[in-house]
Amino acid sequence: MCKGVVIRNYISRRKIDKNVSYDKMFFAGDYLNDICLCLELRDCDFAMARKDFPLEKDLENRKEKGQLKANLISWKTGFDVLKVVEKQLDTV
């Protein structure tokens, strides 16, 4: 199943059932099976691709072509991901 469909359905259910919406979303991935979800992200969200893994190169190309709306961030370790999330939460 496409992760993009799963996240779209989850967000929709949360909005309907609990009136919950998300100001920003973060998704960290590394392989090409993560593309579908990344393409669902909005321009206020963050697609985080592991450095030197297939997803990074693919999303860089899609960003250049205007196919990826989300902010694209490369990461090497979980600490890199954590720093981005913490920085963004500090701006809220």
Describe this structure in words.
It is a single chain. α2 links the parallel β1 and β2. Strands 1-2-3 form a three-stranded parallel beta sheet, sandwiched between helices. The protein has four helices and three strands. 50% of the residues lie in helices and 15% in strands. The mean pLDDT is 95. The relative contact order is 0.17. The chain is of the alpha/beta class and 92 residues long.
List keywords for this structure.
alpha/beta, 92 residues, 4 helices
Give the secondary structure arrangement, pairings included.
Blueprint: H1 3-18, E1 26-29, H2 35-40, E2 46-50, H3 54-64, E3 71-75, H4 78-90
Parallel strand pairs: 1-2, 2-3
Please trace the helix and strand order, writing H or E for each element: HEHEHEH
Mind telling me the C-alpha Rg?
13 Å
Number of helices: 4
Task: State the share of residues found in helices, binned by percent.
Answer: 40-55%
Number of strands: 3
Mean pLDDT: 95
Percent of residues in beta strands?
15-25%
The major β-sheet equals: 3 strands, parallel
Morphology: globular
The unreliable regions are none
Structural category is: alpha/beta
The strand order across the widest sheet is 1-2-3
Distance between the termini: 33 Å
Provide a brief overview of the structure.
This protein is of the alpha/beta class and 92 residues long. It has 4 helices and 3 strands.
